[in-house]
């Protein structure tokens, strides 16, 4: 059971490297092998993993309930037996080549609704095999009809993901499951020409990040009118990174209001913020399915975030920032500061009163350097990252001890999710919003829209700073 469980974690770790670092060939196969099930639930004859689907005697059936070592199969392996699903022999062979010997619980629960064309909101965490849970049924669906080999054909499947790392990995998983379909992966920071050449030759499955997909659509290079299946993966993460608007702009090209022929829509998210349901209502059919693959037992306790508001003049901001960080995060804690302009980001990062090491992140900094800066921050090379709201879009922001917003945020949804980056190991996270007296109304708007209440606190006093420094020294 343990091995089977570890295999489940392995497949998804391989599917989403940004959280695990597992390489391609490092998948640990499960202990159990595929069972020759006699009674198949749906389309059983379509895929019996390598064996002929001849009628089995009681003795053979009993033997089939054991793996090659004569050990009895786990319930998980029995439920996920390939013969329970309308899988083609080609797909079964490719799954076996990846070390997959049965479908995991996530894949078992989602296969039928996805294969039957239903819209779906699935709450699934990284590390459960969720990439295959939509890749396997979608590939089977596409391959069940005669192939469209036309040059320049528009994609039938669009998968939107928040980061280039995840885009690369999801595209690789699709490629590993099909030899007949053309799979492409588009993300920013790479040349347009290669992607346009791929569009000209024809694509069946397109995986990409919102920014680059939106560029191609707006430049009339990418036609989404033929898309039959849309997958939004890690929706909460996308929202977190400020992609909500871009995602909706892309979807507007693929959906017609009130049409019965809109694409099948599949949303995968570890948490389900309000935006997930808003998107569901807007783009999904009324009878969409909702599947919770996290469950109450394994669900993380709701992270509590304390929202504080500190009134200070803009001229005062640079001077008090160091004290705020010292008091609320300490000299060893990680802090991220969001501000509006590049000038402000540079000034705050260079500010002499900031006692912690800080680096800035904004639009003038090349993509490559942004990634290096973010990696340094994630690895603890420096403690404070100062980013403009725009540059923070599309960045996979790690968990931090403190989030500071230099003024009341315009994009309330992004603010809520950034605040969720605070508080690790069950501690209460802290999110601080600085405001000037004339911004009091803006602050109230954030409170109303986000359903939070800011606790008004003063600028830290000299006593607070001394106390925090001595506490730091004791650690």
From TrEMBL:
Gene Ontology CC, one term: cytosol
EC number(s) stated in the UniProt entry for this protein: 3.6.4.13
Residue ranges of every copy of the Helicase ATP-binding domain listed in the record: 111-290
Biased composition (Acidic residues): 16-27
Record key words, sorted: ATP-binding, Cytoplasm, Helicase, Hydrolase, Mitochondrion, Nucleotide-binding, Nucleus, Repeat, RNA-binding, rRNA processing, Transcription
Subcellular location: Cytoplasm, Cytosol; Mitochondrion; Nucleus, Nucleolus; Nucleus, Nucleoplasm
Designated name of the protein: RNA helicase
Organism: Trogon melanurus (Black-tailed trogon)
Gene: Ddx21_0
């Amino acid at each position: 059971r343990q091995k089977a469980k570890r295999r489940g974690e392995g497949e998804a770790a391989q599917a989403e490297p940004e959280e695990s670092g597992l390489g391609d060939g490092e998948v640990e196969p499960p202990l159990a092998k595929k069972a020759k099930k006699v009674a198949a639930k749906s389309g059983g004859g379509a895929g019996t993993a390598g064996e002929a689907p001849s009628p089995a005697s009681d003795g053979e059936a009993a033997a089939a309930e054991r793996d090659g070592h004569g050990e009895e199969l786990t319930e998980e392996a029995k439920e996920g037996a390939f013969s329970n699903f309308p899988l083609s022999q080609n797909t079964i062979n490719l799954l076996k080549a990846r070390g997959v010997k049965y479908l995991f619980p996530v894949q078992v629960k989602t296969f039928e609704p996805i294969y039957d064309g239903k819209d779906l909101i699935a709450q699934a965490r990284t590390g459960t095999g969720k990439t295959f849970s939509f890749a396997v049924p979608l590939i089977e669906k596409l391959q069940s009809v005669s192939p469209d080999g036309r040059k320049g054909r528009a994609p039938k499947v669009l998968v939107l993901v928040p980061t280039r790392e995840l885009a690369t990995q999801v595209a690789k998983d699709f490629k590993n499951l099909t030899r007949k379909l053309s799979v492409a992966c588009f993300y920013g920071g790479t040349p347009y020409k290669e992607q346009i050449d791929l569009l000209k030759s024809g694509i069946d499955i397109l995986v990409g990040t919102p920014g680059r997909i939106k560029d191609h659509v707006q430049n009339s290079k990418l036609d989404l009118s033929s898309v039959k299946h849309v997958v939004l993966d890690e929706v909460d993460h996308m929202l977190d990174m400020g992609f909500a608007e871009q995602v909706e702009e892309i979807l507007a090209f693929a959906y017609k209001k009130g049409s019965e022929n809109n694409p099948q829509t599949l949303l995968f998210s570890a948490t389900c913020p309000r935006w997930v349901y808003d998107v569901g209502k807007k783009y999904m059919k009324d009878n969409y399915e909702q599947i919770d693959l996290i469950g109450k037992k394994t669900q993380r306790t709701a992270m509590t975030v304390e929202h504080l508001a500190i009134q200070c003049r803009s001229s005062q901001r640079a001077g008090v920032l160091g004290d705020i960080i010292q008091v609320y995060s300490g000299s060893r804690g990680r802090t991220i500061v969001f501000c509006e302009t590049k000038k402000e980001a540079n000034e705050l990062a260079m500010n002499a009163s900031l006692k912690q090491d800080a680096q800035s992140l904004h639009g003038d900094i090349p993509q490559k350097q942004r990634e290096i800066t973010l990696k340094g921050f994630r690895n603890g090379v420096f403690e404070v990252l100062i980013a403009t709201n725009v540059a923070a879009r599309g960045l996979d922001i790690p968990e931090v001890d403190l989030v500071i917003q230099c003024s009341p945020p315009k994009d309330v949804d992004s603010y809520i999710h950034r605040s969720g980056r605070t508080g690790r190991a069950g501690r209460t996270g802290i999110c601080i919003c600085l405001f000037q007296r004339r911004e009091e109304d803006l602050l109230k708007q954030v409170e109303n829209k986000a359903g939070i209440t800011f606790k008004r606190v003063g600028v830290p006093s000299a006593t607070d700073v001394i106390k925090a420094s001595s506490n730091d020294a004791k650690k």
